[in-house]
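dumping the sequnces here before i forget
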Amino acid sequence: MAYTVGEVARAARVTVRTLHHYDEIGLLRPSGRTPAGYRRYDDADLDRLQLIRYYRELGFPLDEIAEILDDPAADPAAHLSRQHELLSGRIGKLQEMVAAIEHAMEARKVGIRLTPEERFEVFGDFNPDEHAEEVERRWGDTEAYRQSQERTSRYSKEDWLRNKEVNEDWGRRFAALMDSGAPADGPEAMALAEEHRQLITEWWYDCPLELHTGLADMYVADPRFTAYFETIRPGMAAYLNEAIHANAISRA
Amino acid sequence: MAYTVGEVARAARVTVRTLHHYDEIGLLRPSGRTPAGYRRYDDADLDRLQLIRYYRELGFPLDEIAEILDDPAADPAAHLSRQHELLSGRIGKLQEMVAAIEHAMEARKVGIRLTPEERFEVFGDFNPDEHAEEVERRWGDTEAYRQSQERTSRYSKEDWLRNKEVNEDWGRRFAALMDSGAPADGPEAMALAEEHRQLITEWWYDCPLELHTGLADMYVADPRFTAYFETIRPGMAAYLNEAIHANAISRA
DNA sequence: ACTTGACCCTCACGCCGCGGGAGGCGGCAG
DNA sequence: CTGCCGCCTCCCGCGGCGTGAGGGTCAAGT
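..and the predicted 3d for all of it:
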């Protein structure tokens, strides 16, 4: 039996355009043409189309479908499990987005407008949920981490807001210093570096000079920290790194 | 403070091309240009960019972001909840795909190759999970539905395979009849229509003539049923409908 | 003053999976 | 012979950029 595009399209619940497309890319060529150039599909074509639609339902891209169907060495099981992972990953990302939206809606209800920093920290490369595991891997067995966990767990919403505010204030003054052209190892820069150390000690954990220089190195070594400071002011990560080192040397 | 594209790109962790794109579509125009034509971004531009990236993380398309940011009457809360629904819908679809993949992998393990019919019924418009609710809404309080439920619940895998086989056999003979050019109200068509009714009675539920004609009408009225028959043979739904009616009249 | 190399600019095509339309021919019924 | 439907082949459009090509600009080093 031979069928026209329209018949095939109705049967498989796809559009004629889709069949044209499959023909164009060589995924499903009709087995023949009439003298007038009309596409003629036979039963084998229909079978193949059904397989194609099946894999499409499973989310496979067309080129992979072609591979699965045409390459006798291709292992459908391997493709399936790869596709399974891929889809699971997509679901995970979407679920994070949904969680973030819920967070944003919740914040609006409570009446807090998210500050730029918060938006960045929550949804940017500083996503705390995603970050938390790694922080624990890297710092979980340190005293600083323990202290930080203990103190911050008792912080109220007001505490967090004050924290944010003093941080932003420091950030603004640091940025202004950079704009002024002052050297990173000058006295004003060192003073702000020292203030940064005190802020950490006050809000998070005891931060002696050597821990502070360790942090400073991480600010330039870890792109996620770098990016955080770069959004405050381009070049800030390197500038702050130098200021912290200068401050530590002068106080040693 | 003024920044170049490159600086802004590094700070916001996007590519220069992305900023060019935002400029092109008017989503984020730099506040100025140098005499040489270089883009110059200021702090307000950075703030806007951060908002843009924030909404992008939440999955908003660029034109909607523009709307949210530029239209003072736009309600971010409404956008958020709409977006929430949209993402939830996408998650649902992906989860269906994942379930289908798992089904397919399971079937491969057990060693059953899915037949075309099964692929179609499971993942096409005849998706049983999706379909089951509607079937129950429409037919749940009928005797036929009760019988069907009771009988099929006791079917073994072998029963199902035999069922599939006799159905396919009937389908092949019916398709061959159509190919032969026999009229839909001729004796052979009526005989196969009657056989169809007997098959239903044998495998599913008692199917008297009036119920059979009701089914026949549904085959042409409900596109999902129509599609099922159309994949066996284009035009089959209408042909079968006529044959069933002819058979019912002759036996009344 | 010149060169180098990093940066910037503007096109402009490519991706994926089709949707949709223009402009024109083929086939079949009345 | 006239409709009308269905078929054909282009070809643009979508979203959000990636990735060049082919060239100007800027600051630093020689």
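The beta strands of chain A are 32-33, 39-40.
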